[in-house]
Amino acid sequence: MSDSVAATTAAPAGETAEGPDPRRWAILAVLAIAQLILVLDSSIMTIALPDAAKALDISQANLQWVVTAYTLAFGGLLLLGGRIADYLGRKRAFIIGLLGFAIASAIGGAAINQGMLYSSRALQGAFGALLAPASLSLITVTFTGGKERAKAFGVFGAIAGGGAAIGLIAGGALTEYLNWRWCLLVNLPIALITAAFALPILRESKAHGDTRMDVPGAILASLGLVSLVYAFTEAAKQKVGADGLPHATGWTDPVVVTLLAAAVVLLVAFVWLETRVANPLLPLRIVLHRNRGGSYLVFFLVGAGLFSMFLFMTLYLQQVLGYEPLKAGFAFLPFSLGIIVMAGVVAQLMPRVGPKPLMIAGLTLAATGLLLLLRTTPTSSYFGAVFPALVVMSLGMAAVFIPTSSTALIGVGGHDAGIASAVLNTSQQVGGSLGLALLNTFALTATADKISDLVAGGADPKSPVTAATAQVAGFHTAYVGSAIMLVLALGVALFVITARKHDLPQDAAVAV
């Protein structure tokens, strides 16, 4: 298979013999709604967790499994889901993933005990791992022209960046005015309606040639990624120390060390196997290509730096400023709106200036926005300290998500569209898990140190003012760590990414 973009006389997967598929914008609408369901689900349950814990008698120690069960299944099965989409057919994988996600959501909404809720969340993650790469790869094979693909990725990027904040608003509203169960049940009607539109609109596309599944590779990759994400989750888990303060489990905990060691062994074995099988789950040419590999690394670092921001800002707004859940959700609305507005601008600019300048400007703005959060204090006003930072970050992230999604798929043929999309999702998922674990550890340590310093200076250790001051100090440490992640991503964009505007698909098809 050729690894370059080239003109071909055959009609591309996303085109009819007469030209581009006339239904391509309707196709994009269907794919965008499915993506929104996935992105919303990553945050919509966050605000509902306390109510779910009360209803199902879930202990504080076990509450994290509502999130972890989804994360482990989603992150661990993404590569396998991407290859299944390539071989089974991307439309078929999309429909199965969407309906399966809806059924899993209904099971979770009807949960009568914590085990049923955990199982449904894991099932959601498994079907999400099939749905996510199928959606992105369908965009890749449907939009082959440079300007139209940029617009399509603009829509997709706006949803990917802004959906999490919208999920917080939706979660707050549903929990406050209906019931926490609706944070899951809401997926059912949306997914069923989307599937009904998808069936007649989507065109089937699949990999041709050798489509034998690399079963040993799938097992090694899935177990390795599950071990890695689980290790990060365990490292970030909070426990009360002898001083009565919360501390992260840490990286030296025996369980964490064992999981990390297992992940290294499994993933090294996976890479070794992929160099020796005839039809690998992950052809190494996908990640070793300079622009694609650099794009995956940028997504990994952005996931590590940005996703934890939502957690710390939610804690700041609710625990320090005293916001109700719905109000805290609406506080993120400027972030969503900023990405949506800027996405349209980026889509227009990318075919003219190319992806690299946009990535550089976007990462610089996003890192600056994170550092602006260092102005927050226990008594800050929202519009004085939080709002400007969210706006600057949103403008920057729109200029990162869209170009990076495009360069990550440069030169990918129809045989590998699903797996290439899955690697992009996996990079972000694993990066987000690592960043959350790492930065949560830093934040808890900084909070404990700040309390010790304040108490040594005569402050009352039980005073709410002392607790808020220490919490904000911990958040500041996390924001600095997040900004460092984005600066590292900026370095990758500067020195690794070489793609220019003429490297992006124009009216030619991706050669297969």
Question: What does it look like?
Answer:
- With 512 residues, the protein is an all-alpha fold.
- The chain has one domain: Growth Hormone, Chain: A (Up-down Bundle).
- It has 18 helices and 4 strands.
- α1 packs parallel to α6, α9 runs parallel beside α17 and α14 runs antiparallel to α15.
- The longest helix has 40 residues.
- It is globular.
- The N and C termini lie close together (6 Å).
Low-confidence stretches: 1-18, 506-512
Count of the domains: 1
Helix-strand makeup class: mainly alpha
Helix content: over 70%
Instruction: Kindly report the spatial arrangement of strands forming the biggest sheet.
Output: 1-2
> Could you name the CATH class?
Mainly Alpha
Please give the CATH architecture: Up-down Bundle
Considering the protein shown, what is the CATH homologous superfamily?
MFS general substrate transporter like domains
Mean pLDDT score, rounded? Answer: 82
Tertiary shape = globular
Query: How many distinct helices?
Result: 18
Order of helices and strands: EEHHHHHHHHHEEHHHHHHHHH
Strand tally is 4
Strand residues, percent: under 5%
- End-to-end separation in angstroms reads 6 Å
- Radius of gyration computed on alpha carbons: 22 Å
Question: Would you summarize the structure shown here?
Answer:
This protein is 73% helix and 2% strand.
Topology:
Elements lengths: L14 E2 L2 E2 L3 H21 L4 H8 L8 H24 L1 H20 L4 H29 L3 H32 L4 H4 L1 H15 L13 H22 L1 E3 L5 E3 L5 H21 L9 H5 L1 H31 L4 H7 L1 H21 L1 H18 L9 H26 L9 H40 L7 H32 L17
Antiparallel strand pairs: 1-2, 3-4
Helix pairs in contact: 1-5, 1-6, 1-8, 3-4, 3-5, 3-9, 3-17, 4-5, 4-8, 5-17, 6-13, 6-14, 6-16, 9-10, 9-17, 12-16, 12-17, 12-18, 14-15, 14-16, 15-16, 15-18, 17-18
